[in-house]
Input
Amino acid sequence: MKWLIPLCAATLALEAHTTTGLKIEHRVHPYGLDDPNPRMSWRLEGDAEGLAQTAFQILVATSQDKLEAGEADLWDSGKTEGRASHARYEGKDLPSSAPVYWKARSWAGGEASEWSAATRFVTGRIDGEPTAKYISFKDERSFHTKRNELYLPAPRYYRKTFKPEKKVVRAVAHASALGIYELKLNGMKAGDAWFAPGWTNYRKRAYYNTYDVTKLLARGENVIGAVVADGWYSGYLAYGKLVGYGPHRTGRDIYGKTPALMVEIHLTYDDGSSEVVATDGSWKVTTGPEFEADFLMGEGYDARKEMIGWAAKGFDDSEWESAVLASSNGSVKQPFFDKFGKEVQEFGFIRPPVLQAYPAQPVRTIEELEAVAITEPSEGVYIFDLGQNFAGNVRLKLLGKSGQKITLRYGEMLHPDGRLMTENLRAARATDTYICKGDREGEIWTPRFTFHGFRYVEVTGCSQKPPLDAITGLVLHSDTPMASGFECSDPVVNQIFRNAVWTQRANWIDLPTDCPQRDERMGWTGDAQIYAASAAIHADVGAFFRKWLRELEDSVTKEGYYPSYAPYPFGHGKAIHGSAWSDAGVIVPHAVWKATGDPQFFTNHWAAMTRFMDARMAQDPLLKGTAFGAPWGDWLNLDDPTPHEYVELAYFTLSALLMSEMASAQGLAEQVKKYDRWVAMMRENFRKQYLQPDGTIRPESQSAYVLALDCGLLDDPAARKKAGDRLAALVGERSGPNATGMTTGFLGTKPLLPMLTATGHHDLAVSLLQSRKYPSWGYEVKNGATTIWERWNSYTAEHGFGGPNGTMNAAMNSFSHYAFGAVTEWMVETLAGIAPAEPGYSKIRLHPHFPSADAVSETDTISWVKAHHDSPHGRIAVSWKRQEDGSLLYEATVPPNTTAELTLPAVSPWKQADAKPETRTLAPGSHKIVVE
Ligand code: RAM
Output
């Protein structure tokens, strides 16, 4: 044993600890929670070495005063023995549409902590779904049928005045829309969400958002206002226009023709009685300054038409029309075109059969970006550089004359001559228009019902060169708490990590999208499954995936297959599926369980997951791997394809392995047996069909080896070693002075570095990570990337955006696609060495992997790494460093209520390359270790 442990910062004496980090259903203080038995969690904080919970107690009350007085009128869990820092609510029925207060404390080493700070959430309609009627404007226009003509209707403004009869002590609103909406009360915006109520298959389910509007209420007359735009419901959606899907192949009105609004405000009076103000035919409706508003096409705003004070008292709405019940617009049957042909469908109002509380953090403005430069590639055309590719909007600030038209266009890249590059946006017009009102004090505008994926904004129509602060970037995304950090001695690698995190942020707009800029922005399942574990490292994505997994299940085909994207807006009941894409239905629940420790991610979906596996088995009963759905395979590989059937066998095996693990976690012994049997059969079929006597795989592609190793096709250690060696050789064969030799696509890239490390080629893995040659992550960074590109060859210095002789499709070329960013999973779990050994990190695997001092020839080999992850138990932080004397300095912070298994070589890896690893258990606290 050569480990030297000069310092263990933790003290042995027991110190007071605190109970903190309270969450309910993976959110901190949600507005709108409709689970009758929500999951409540907390964590322990304190410096005492080995701090571990022995018991907990939760108090839940209907008011803060009661909670503070210890009067838990909803639930007192009592002192409950155990280590789990989460429990399901088991108190009285939660009140509907009401604030609820709770706190928790924990015991450790015989000592109770103080009570945590009280936290609050607001319930949704626990007592049933909202019953308010959906309202619309009277829609008499004929259905849009022209594919080649854009149709962009104006959002509608709704207004209602009401006078509470008595003194209101509490007012809780639930609101939803078919479309997207913003709600106001007495001129003030309720909540801070963008794009509420999110994207669902509105024909099956919609969400409502809950707001505590007590403080927005006034005495006497009150005004509710709402603006409703097309959003996902009836706006241009995904690649519908491009490929000719949707009613009349127009790509819009996918779910219905006329957006609709639903609001109910629950007023509780001081005498205990209550009243509900809800949408009905007495509301008024009109259009406002926005003359168009569409996710893909952009927004137009005529400031001269602003209606000052429209959502407040005293505004004259006598010119406004009366709203109508959405159902009164009647039936609208139209031909719908999709992959499966033509079908006449209903585009009139259909009330979503399920209305639930929005289960995740909303999309919010997370950050503002100042412009870093302005260029003028041609006269009067100003391009603002925000310095970072992201998704969101801008705040425009300018001085203009009444009627002056300012046009904003958005792009991720510039052409070499400085022009905005928009070819890759395809049919997304991504253009906003602002018509000035001529305010001498200046004008400020932010579009509200669109977003773009961009770094550059082109501004035209100004009378003179605008100042730098004329444009501010608003970074929007689902407000998942960010949870990771990584730094090392190579700045290029640090930028790779930042690029991945930014790409996740740019694509976390209500659901995991593939890209934020072009006419796609869909929840592609292949991308999501590849990236899910990385996503869960970078952010607390529990609530986010809780929502999306419902969308995924809502889109399952009648055969039982998970679709290629979810929501699946085209097909209405039918969907394309495919190997590795459909597997998201199994892989994502597994990944989120591992990260959060919450089994509901698979228990809630177990029936659908089982049905999927059985349906897939039914089409390949001998489990040989047959073509399964669309043949995307190792998507966007570099001329090194892997057969579709092979990909199917690999992914079917992987899913069966994960199903077995999740079945075992539920104690389903028969199902464990079933999946284990399938795995054995598939391994045998793999040996027969693909594995050669010399240990090579035919047909040979880099991804064939990677998948055989990663998906569990190859279990024999000697065979794995051979496959790893051959994989390394294949990369080597293709490498050269200007080439890394990597050829893997979406499927092969994520496990490439992990499998090289696992088979003894860690130095090669590190040199690929650190390479600046083509293709690599570093090549992107060298060429200015601030996000991860869709393709290795999205841009090359030689061929620009179009590939050699324009052979590459510049239109399908996103600069913000996260699949290749999944390398960050290996960076944190393997290079830094932080991984969950048990779901939710209650047991942590600390197993860093060190490159040889001269592993990398292009640049200095990484000599130190620092990383952290904020787990459910608190921050896990590690660092390692190659010291000047060749020894290894390792430091780790292990959070309370966990244990960590640390594996380090017995002798410094830079003194003896093949020193045996040793594993030790680390208790919560800080640890500093020198390996000589
Ligand atoms: C592209 C999407 C996505 C991928 C599919 C197969 O259009 O952007 O990334 O999963 O195709």
User: Anything to note?
Assistant: Confidence is low (pLDDT under 50) at residues 9-13.
